[in-house]
Write a structure and sequence with these properties.
Its cofactor is Zn(2+). By secondary structure, this protein is mainly α. It contains 13 helices and 4 strands. Helix 3 runs antiparallel to helix 5 and helix 7 packs across helix 9. The longest helix has 42 residues.
């Protein structure tokens, strides 16, 4: 049990700093955003499991050689049953810290989800007052505003895509198709759930490098996935022109020398621009498979150390 707790602690340290830093700097992620997203999720889940598990297993070590046996011993300690082993103050502290951290992560997720849900409901009510349904698509509304804007508003029952009048007037039919395809990809692939999970993780542990780097990386990767979905319907120049129009407020952004370099915003990053301007080759299938295997391994290792710590000591 003690060896398992030390291994879990070491894995938690690796996943809290060097692993996310290395992944955030990796260039291959733009070549396979889906694979990178899976790896980010594995790092987050395995990191949280390792942090909680290290304290849990170490605190339970005096009570048994396996998690099930130790939990049975903890039950006897709590209720003062005969044959109960004693726990030192440091073990009680470790168990309390594990319980508090686990509860903190869960409650932060619930609070963040409730807050986001309330904001979406309020936002949808405002849209009902300030926008008109699109004549060509019942799931799209047009906001009477001159600044080019496009975004999607997720929801359990009525997700909607929002376009401003300024954007509708600035783009031609092909450009509007590109924007709609991009925003609908966010809704169909439920990217809002990923954003919610990583945002709540960052809110719970803002001091952890993994949570900050993961939140930024995931936001960029889901935009790349939406770009890929749009590229199945329109060409890269059309999509790029549409995104720049929404980001800069002008359809002539590409006509001015040097304007592309100045165009990246929080929503249109330089990595996305470079990816659309000069698409690289997709990540080879064996490499993608290897990264997915690493992600699976990251989830299996802390799980195995928790379920069967007696196997390694």
């Amino acid at each position: 049990m003690l060896t398992a707790s030390y291994l879990l602690a070491a894995l938690a340290v690796v996943l809290a700093w060097p692993a996310p830093v290395a992944l955030s700097r990796a260039r291959w992620t733009a070549r396979s955003p889906f694979t990178a997203l899976v790896l980010w999720q594995a790092i987050a889940l395995a990191g949280g499991l390792s942090m909680i598990g290290a304290m849990l297993v170490w605190g339970l070590a005096p009570l048994g050689d396996s998690l099930l046996e130790a939990l049975g011993g903890l039950w006897r300690v709590i209720f003062g049953l005969p044959g109960a082993a004693g726990l030192g103050i440091v073990h009680v502290f470790a168990l309390s810290a594990a319980a508090l951290l686990g509860a903190h992560l869960v409650f932060t997720l619930l609070i963040t989800a409730a807050k986001v849900t309330r904001q979406r409901v309020r936002h949808r009510r405002l849209l009902n007052l300030l926008s008109d349904p699109s004549p060509s698509d019942p799931k799209t509304v047009v906001l009477e505003h001159e600044i080019p804007v496009a975004y999607c508003l997720p929801g359990f029952t009525e997700p909607v895509t929002v376009l401003s009048r300024g954007l509708v007037d600035a783009l031609d039919a092909e450009g509007l198709r590109a924007v709609l395809a991009h925003e609908r990809a966010h809704l169909e692939q439920h990217h809002d759930l990923l954003v919610l999970a990583f945002e709540s993780w960052h809110q719970a542990l803002p001091w952890l490098p993994t949570s900050r780097l993961a939140r930024l990386a995931v936001q960029d990767l889901i935009e790349m996935l939406a770009d890929d979905a749009a590229l199945e319907q329109v060409s890269a120049p059309v999509l790029l022109r549409s995104l720049l129009t929404a980001a800069t407020g002008t359809a002539e952004a590409l006509s001015t020398p040097g304007s592309v370099a100045a165009a990246p915003t929080e929503e249109l990053s330089s990595r996305r621009l470079k990816r659309l301007l000069s698409p690289g080759d997709a990540l080879p299938a064996p490499v993608r498979a290897g990264v997915l295997c690493v992600a699976l391994l990251l989830l299996c290792i802390p799980t195995l150390l928790l379920v069967a710590p007696g196997l390694i000591g």
